[in-house]
Amino acid sequence: MLLLLLAAAQAKPLTSPEFDDTAHTLAPGQNQIDVFRVSQFAITDEVELKTVILGGAREKQSWFWGPNVGVEYAIREGKQGALSVEGFVGSTWLFGRQSANAGVNWTTGGPKSSRFNLSANVGFATSDENAAGEKERTNSLNTELYASAHWYINDGTTWRFYVGVDPYNSVLTESYAGSFGAEWNHAWRDNWRLAVGLQYRDSTWLAEGLNDFNGGGENLPPVLPLPSVDLWYFW
Q1: Residue 234 in contact with residue 27, Cβ under 8 Å?
Q2: CB 14 within 8 A of CB 30
Q3: What are the angstrom distances between the C-alpha of 95 and each of 100, 111, 129, 139?
Q4: pLDDT digit string, tens, across residues 68-89
Q5: Rounded distance, CA 201 to CA 223, Å?
Q6: 181-204 pLDDT, tens per residue?
Q7: Fewer CB within 10 Å, N or C, the chain?
Q8: Would you call 172 helix, strand, or coil by DSSP?
């Protein structure tokens, strides 16, 4: 019933720049407050300021953990596609952990059409605490190769299918490090957007948490199915 009500409501078109995995950027005057993912604020035609307010279950790059900010620059964009580069930095509130990453994004397709997206990212983090919770400066590297397809149904509805992998840590741990899934994205009440889906993620992050708390993380399957929900406000 909820989905039927949302589908019937009119809203501003749900376009490519609102998705954090495309190379399109918001137009000047446009902004987006996102609950769990990346919030975006247009600075110029090509430049977009980004930050993560709350983050997801496994991300430690959010204002819950500490300050973070990113910038995306569109090298080119239009109805045929877009190319952009971006960078992101963050820290914990007590400055025990810092991180930085940079990447390049490519999109084929326009803001209001079906499209295909590719991106590659590399990140670095340094922390004053090791995996055992001991005070020791440690460094870590992460990489990402990502691909997604956006199936544009109409101005208010877009399906997203995606897969991502961290090649460096997959080889290092001899296991899959990444995620894949699908989600339904819908716009309603003019400015509100909702994303609901199913995601399969590597269980490393949960296993580490269980082992730190009470053990048992070694019994988890390598990949877990998890629901994904997101809500954002666009104007």
Answers
A1: no
A2: no
A3: 13, 39, 11, 14
A4: 999 999 999 988 999 999 999 9
A5: 5
A6: 999 999 988 899 999 999 998 877
A7: N
A8: helix
CA distance 182 to 228: 9
CB distance 187 to 11 below 8 Å: yes
Please state, in angstroms and rounded to a whole number, the distance separating the CA atoms of residues 146 and 118.
6
Contact status, residue 219 vs residue 192, Cβ threshold 8 Å: no
User: Could you write out the three-class secondary structure of 104-133?
Assistant: EEEEECCCCCCEEEEEEEEEEEEEEECCCC
Distances from the Cα of 35 to the Cα of 17, 88, 231, angstroms: 17, 18, 6
- Round to whole Å and give the CA distance between 221 and 203: 7
User: Would residue 55 be called left, alpha or beta, if left means φ above 0 and alpha means ψ between -120 and 50 degrees?
Assistant: left
d(CA 144, CA 131): 22
